[in-house]
Design goal:
Number of strands: 18
Structural class: alpha/beta
Distance between the termini: 39 Å
Shape: globular
Strand order of the largest sheet: 5-6-7-3-8-9
Number of helices: 21
């Protein structure tokens, strides 16, 4: 579909891409990976037609549609959420308006026998067929499914977009892109503004309903679940692997090792040949053999080893001054904005040295509670900060607060005090801002480089309580791994607000879940929490569907509270009757999935048959075939959606 040929990009004498060539095929799921500043976002902009390369070209069919979601965008706030999402179907509204104008013209004209009148009738007929083909009758339901999947509620649909944070408005833009169903989706860090549940929904959507996808993301679990091809950008070149990220890491290492072994073997062969030539160069009896060896060396195709990017982030938090045993004690803490309750009665204790995660949907109060701890906003209840607690705070928008007009060095020089000012160059070098990079203006830095620069501020003075609000946004895989290890090695207390499952895995020993106006404590790691939430959701469904013996349904909030309190002891055993009920539902869910898969196969066969007919001269002029094709495509879309929901239900039951 898209052919990238001989692409080169240079900035101020530095080469970003050097003669890159590859093809994006239909239904490709591509992960673009590489370190921060390697050119991933630039590559997407070039494919989207927003930036021109220094040389080379991007070839694509004229009718190919491309949807692009950048890391940052300028958003408008003149519509409601629903009205903004409806902009994805502007082509439908334009077509409907054109049909209405033509119908009005038909009603007003009286030259019924003229060729011009007959041509107008034909144009109206073709426009109506086109309208049926693109599924105009179903767009409202598609909008609702997509917005709800991305975390919006039906009550949000009528709210002005200006009432939402930047992250939620980015979700609206993502919804518009998904609804447009472009032939190629270019997504630059789409998970940065999504919570865990929305990320899992987006995974399912991209895997089952999207066309070609080119994805830049530093969420390893997300790209592993979505992509099937990995293109690494490194030092101006690309390496293309037809596997997902995890397999790519293994194959890349194997390739480098094989190259190194072949290189070492060849170097030994060359040294032996050169030694033979040098030894017998002046012996007449060996002249023929010497000449033969010289010719062998000249013809030898030299093995090259891929240049490995050895730049490395050296991150280590200073030793934490000793604090009291309990850095944070919360008793009945609550926060409201007018009539809107964010959370209430949050009661918990964080011990010295604990590493905990704040998780939950966006807007449920994670960052709000952090601001309460920082003393930035008022709250109800009691929040005690322990003895000698020194807080280091990394805000979610920290990188965007940097002054773009100054250099990297000046950014740190302005906040550094005392002896630390003599070590600024060393610190910047440890964060991969050595040499000329320290003189770059902030405005030319990538998102990941800005995040690294903002992170340096945390190192300027020793702290014993680190609060990190979405610290991994824009960080590449290796930098995230280094940050994760630095937090593990840190001997103070850590609170991490994050949606990155891979980053939190093995890092935290306790999870605080925000949702429904409550803050609940879960012992264990992030995947223990996710597994437990699935079990609780399943039990919740059973409780709603199955009346109790007394004829009353169980009080769900109370049941949830009981589950949260007893979580340390594991899930309670299901009774025999409950097991039978679950088994029955499992069989029913399996049958539903199988039936839908059979229906999908049948519909695809019917569509293929109609498309074969449409490819013939007679078929191309048969309007009924277009109507049937549109009807079948709409039916297939609806069935695919049902299959996706049924598969998710089956997966939850199986777990």
């Amino acid at each position: 579909m898209i052919s990238i040929e001989g692409l080169s990009v240079a900035f101020g004498g530095n080469t970003l891409f050097d003669n890159i060539t590859y093809v994006i095929n239909k239904k490709d799921r591509i992960a673009l990976v590489g370190k921060n500043g390697a050119g991933k976002s630039t590559m997407l902009k070039i494919i989207a037609g927003l930036q021109a390369p220094t040389s080379g070209c991007v070839n694509m069919p004229k009718d190919l549609t491309v949807g692009y979601l950048p890391q940052q965008m300028n958003l408008t706030d003149t519509r409601t959420v629903m009205e903004e999402a409806e902009q994805a179907f502007a082509h439908i509204f334009e077509l409907q308006a054109r049909i209405e104008r033509m119908n009005t013209e038909l009603a007003e004209r009286t030259d019924y026998e003229s060729d011009d009148y007959q041509e107008l009738i034909e144009r109206v007929s073709n426009a109506n067929e086109q309208l049926a083909l693109i599924g105009a009758a179903n767009y409202q339901a598609e909008i609702e499914k997509t917005l709800i999947g991305l975390g919006f509620t039906r009550e949000d649909f009528g709210r002005d977009t200006s009432e939402f944070s930047g992250g939620w408005r980015m979700r609206i833009e993502l919804a518009k892109l998904l609804l447009q169903r472009p032939d190629v989706l270019l997504l630059d860090e789409p998970t940065n503004h999504l919570d865990i549940e929305s990320i899992q929904w987006l995974e399912g959507f991209l895997a089952t309903r999207a066309n070609a996808v080119v994805l830049v993301s530093h969420d390893r679990a997300f790209i592993d679940n979505v992509t099937t091809r990995t293109i690494e950008i490194s030092l101006g070149r690309i390496y293309d692997y037809q596997v997902n990220y995890s397999h790519y890491v293994v194959l890349r290492q194997e390739r480098l090792e094989q190259q190194m072994r072949a290189y070492e073997n060849q170097q030994k062969q060359i040294q032996d040949t050169e030694a033979f030539i040098e030894r017998f160069r002046y012996k007449a009896t060996k002249s023929v053999q010497v000449q033969s060896r010289i010719k062998q060396l000249a013809k030898l195709e030299r093995v090259e080893v891929d240049e490995v990017d050895t730049s490395h982030l050296n991150l280590k938090f200073p030793p934490a001054p000793r604090s009291g045993d309990y850095p944070i004690i919360a008793e009945g803490v609550g926060k409201s904005y007018g009539d809107h309750l964010v959370f209430a009665d949050a009661t918990f204790t964080i011990k010295r040295g604990e590493k905990v995660a704040f998780v939950g949907k966006n807007g449920e109060g994670k960052s709000t509670l952090v601001k309460c701890i920082m003393g930035e906003i008022p709250y109800t209840g009691t929040l005690k900060i322990g003895h000698n607690v020194k807080i280091g705070y990394f805000a979610q928008n920290q990188a965007s607060l940097l002054d773009e007009s100054v250099t990297v060095f000046d950014t740190i020089d302005r906040v550094a005090v005392g002896d630390i000012r003599t070590k600024i160059r060393d610190i910047l070098g440890a964060f991969m801002f050595g040499g000329e990079a320290s003189d770059k203006k902030v405005k030319v830095l990538s998102g990941g480089e800005r995040t690294r620069l903002a992170m340096i501020r945390l190192l300027l003075e020793p702290v014993n309580l680190l609060i990190l609000d979405e610290p991994t946004n824009h960080l590449d895989m290796r930098t995230k791994d280094v940050l994760k290890q630095a937090i593990k090695d840190f001997n103070g207390t850590v609170i991490v607000v994050s949606h990155d499952r891979e980053f939190l895995d093995g890092l935290v020993s306790k999870v605080y879940e925000f949702g429904g106006g409550r803050v609940r404590e879960h012992l264990g790691g992030i995947y223990d929490f996710l597994e437990r939430r699935k079990l609780e959701s399943l039990r919740e469904l059973e409780q709603r569907a199955t009346p109790l013996a007394g004829g009353k349904k169980e009080n769900l909030p109370k049941a949830e509270a009981t589950a949260a309190v007893s979580m340390g002891n594991g899930a309670s055993k299901l009774s025999y009757e409950e097991q039978k009920e679950v088994a029955r539902r499992l069989r029913k869910a399996e049958k539903a999935v199988a039936d839908l898969e059979a229906e999908i196969a049948s519909l695809e066969a019917q569509i293929a048959e109609v498309e074969t007919k449409l490819a013939t001269p007679d078929g191309a002029s048969d309007t009924s075939l277009y109507e049937e094709h549109g009807r079948l495509k709409k039916q297939l879309d609806d069935t695919m959606w049902k299959w996706s929901e049924a598969s998710e239900t089956l997966e939850q039951l199986q777990k």
